[in-house]
């Protein structure tokens, strides 16, 4: 028997070698990896402390201008995916800096982008002729294929450097090999609408009478923190605390009730001081930005201690709990709309 098996092994590896020349391979050698019993991707959980990151952001600001860089961003790479510019297999995250007096020139691309303001106020992003001024905790959208430029009109020495989290579906678009990009001729796009116009039209449970959605993306570009924070507070006071999520809300496209972007879901969540969630797992791994408070995420038994402006990533299907030492607000984003559209999203609230 042993001889036969050794002989078989030898014959098989010779066969595999020959097969390679035809650019073919035997499924039975990789079946359990290709069709895993449960998600078995390479991503690991990781934490980026603001105190570690900030000095590097400042140095980037000294080394290159926003204009030269086009986008002066330090990418958050999953430690298990070095060089892939990915924080999970489907998501990109980065921290973008814009200094007073700078402009990041107008361009457009197929990739959808979200901005979550981490530090500083007074910079703007312009989409569709409307500028939105950024404040910490605001969630801002750049829809697929829309012209956008960023600027910080403040005076050097007076105005603040502004840093925000960029969340893009770069790996998804790369996966489909469907990326296009164009540079605008003008550095900044012309302003054709007053600030707040989109929020007035679409953000008050009303819509212009003849409005028909023309894209899959929310017509609101900005979801100000003030409003989200107020709702979290109110719902907590009304007793709506989930054992797994605390008070967790999803941002919506007010014209459809669906996700604000076709490829990325965004959430804002409140965990009161002393809250310890029950364990949870979901196939939509997510990137978190800590707005207020402190505590820890315990992912597969490893604790990641977080405070304001820290970022962390929880990969697909890894069991995690969230604990708050102070009243805590977390923003997060994931590829949930894609998984939901494909019918492959799975999540589990684990009872203990
Ligand atoms: O602001 O347009 O972090 O195009 C990566 C690619 C930001 C942007 C990023 C981009 C942008």
Gist of the model:
The chain is α+β, with helices and mostly antiparallel strands.
Key descriptive features of the protein:
alpha+beta; binds 2,5-dihydroxybenzoic acid; Jelly Rolls
Shape from CA axes?
A: globular
**Radius of gyration, rounded?**
23 Å
> How big a fraction of the residues is strand?
25-35%
Order of helices and strands: HHEHHEEEEEEEEEHEHEHEEEEEEEEEHE
Query: What gap, in angstroms, lies between the N and C termini?
Result: 49 Å
Instruction: Determine the structural class based on helices, strands and strand pairing.
Output: alpha+beta
CATH superfamily: Jelly Rolls
Bound compounds, please?
2,5-dihydroxybenzoic acid
With strands numbered from the N-terminus, the spatial order across the biggest sheet is: 1-19-16-21-14-13
- CATH fold name: Jelly Rolls
Main β sheet profile: 6 strands, antiparallel
| CATH architecture field | Sandwich
Our count of domains comes out at: 1
What would CATH call the class? Mainly Beta
* Tally of individual helices: 8
Unreliable parts: none
Number of strands: 22
Mean pLDDT: 96
């Amino acid at each position: 028997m042993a001889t036969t098996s050794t002989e078989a092994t030898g014959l098989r590896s010779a066969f595999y070698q020959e097969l390679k020349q035809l650019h073919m391979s035997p499924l039975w050698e990789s079946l359990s990896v290709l069709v895993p019993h449960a998600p078995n991707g390479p991503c690991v959980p990781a934490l980026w402390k603001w105190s570690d990151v900030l000095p590097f952001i400042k140095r980037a600001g000294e080394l290159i201008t926003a204009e030269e860089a086009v986008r002066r961003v330090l990418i958050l790479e999953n430690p298990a995916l070095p060089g892939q510019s990915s924080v999970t297999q489907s998501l990109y995250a980065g921290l973008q800096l814009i200094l007073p007096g700078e402009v990041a020139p107008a361009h457009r691309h197929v990739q959808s982008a979200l901005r979550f303001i981490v530090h500083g106020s007074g910079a703007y992003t312009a989409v569709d002729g409307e500028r939105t001024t950024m404040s910490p905790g605001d969630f801002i959208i750049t829809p697929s294929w829309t012209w956008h430029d960023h600027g910080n009109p403040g005076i050097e020495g007076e105005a603040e450097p502004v840093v925000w989290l960029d969340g893009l579906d770069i790996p998804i678009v790369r996966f489909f090999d469907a990326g296009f990009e164009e540079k605008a001729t003008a550095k900044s796009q012309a302003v054709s609408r007053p600030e707040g116009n989109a929020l007035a039209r679409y953000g008050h449970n009303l819509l212009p009478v003849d409005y028909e959605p023309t894209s899959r993306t929310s017509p609101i570009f900005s979801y100000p923190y003030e409003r989200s924070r107020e709702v979290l507070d109110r719902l907590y006071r009304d007793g709506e605390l989930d054992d797994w999520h605390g008070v967790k809300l999803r941002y919506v496209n007010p014209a459809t009730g669906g996700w604000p972007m076709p490829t990325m879901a965004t959430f804002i969540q409140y965990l009161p001081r002393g809250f310890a969630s029950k364990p949870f797992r979901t196939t939509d791994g997510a990137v978190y930005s800590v707005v207020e408070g402190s505590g820890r995420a315990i992912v597969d038994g490893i604790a990641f201690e977080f405070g304001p402006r820290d970022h962390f990533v929880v990969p697909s299907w890894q069991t995690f709990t969230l604990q708050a030492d102070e009243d805590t607000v977390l923003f997060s984003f994931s590829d949930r709309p894609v998984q939901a559209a494909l019918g492959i999203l799975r999540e589990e609230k684990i009872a203990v």
